[in-house]
Amino acid sequence: MSSLDRRRFLTKAVLGTATAVVGATALGSVSPEVALAEQHADVGLGANMYDPNFVEGRITQIKDNMLWVTSSDRSFHRIHVTNGTSVWKLRHTTFADAKVGDGLYSRGVRLDDGTLAADSVWLNIVNMRTKIVGMGPNTLYLDSGHERVVAHVIPGTTAAVYNSTPAVRDMSMVQVGRHAQVIGAWRPDTNEVEISTLYTSAA
Questions:
Q1: How much is the pTM?
Q2: What is the Cα–Cα distance from 186 to 115, expressed in whole angstroms?
Q3: H or E element: which one contains 11?
């Protein structure tokens, strides 16, 4: 699988649709779990309707507080990041963590010069439904049905939700053979992700 196809696979289910991002940020949240919960919210946008205040793509240049982004449809965008912009990259973080090559989803307001003043930015976010096929030290091996994915457990960050109970840091109940949903951050140009939250069942 090519790096472009891999990126499309890993990001196609991110937050459900662009509408999910719109719905979540309309409620004032950048948490990916909240955005997923709101993915069916009626925010007045049809599934195929262009939203000028939403950008997806990949960062090609960073200068001062401006991001240059190329979207999957080959359109180009400039995104202005302010002190008030919320940034997510595996966890809530700062603009300093943005790198050239990162995948990006952003929600904000278009300015007169065509730039997007970002309210929220998600970097490399992925949402996958998978099966756990192997385990190693701080590593899970996943089968997405399309390719194998290496998922890294990040101590102090990764949390697990078992049978819809509250999230915990304890990964000891994760079992090979179980189905799981993974929200995390993709490592660009690889088949690897870092896990933010793992949803699975426990015996």
A1: 0.77
A2: 26
A3: helix 3-11
